[in-house]
Amino acid sequence: MAHALSATVTLIEGDRFAAATGSGGVADLAPAAEDGAPTGAVSPMEALLVALAGCLGMSVAPILRKMRQPVSRYEIRAHGALTTRPPRVFEAITVEHTFAGEGLERQAIERAVTLAEERYCGASAMLGKAARISHTITIVGT
Fold first, then answer.
1. Is there a single domain that holds both residue 32 and residue 48?
2. pLDDT tens, 54-65?
């Protein structure tokens, strides 16, 4: 049987929802504010960016450990450009990977990001069918 995941989303009030996953994760969901003001909750499209960044990170980090790369800090930022007409979907996503550590090898890091994107990260595989995904890599402390 295929590995199954689950999520339940329950209306709190207005357009705000509480999300819970089968693994025990929780999040508040709300539509993004038109003026970009903070809502204190995650919008569904932001959740997709979080999923992509998290999936890539959880794929890249163990690859780099196996490559014996001394990563002391790893931050992933994902930015998505939405189409202008409904349904508003991502047409392009940029993922910025920032690594810190003494003695990091750029070639190893680039290989780990490529492997994660092309082979191990399901979120990247799915979103890549709908949007162009590009990556930048910054290494600090080398």
1. no
2. 999 999 999 999
Tokens of 71: 């990563």
Nearest 10 degrees: CA dihedral of 31, 54, 111, 104?
Answer: 120
Q: Are residues 21 and 36 in the same domain?
A: yes
Enclosing H/E stretch for 82: strand 73-82
Domain hosting residue 8, numbered range = 1-42
The CA distance from 53 to 84, in Å, is 23
Mean of pLDDT values over 23-45 = 90
Contact yes or no for 61/71 (Cβ under 8 A): yes
Q: Contact, 106 vs 137, CB < 8 A?
A: yes
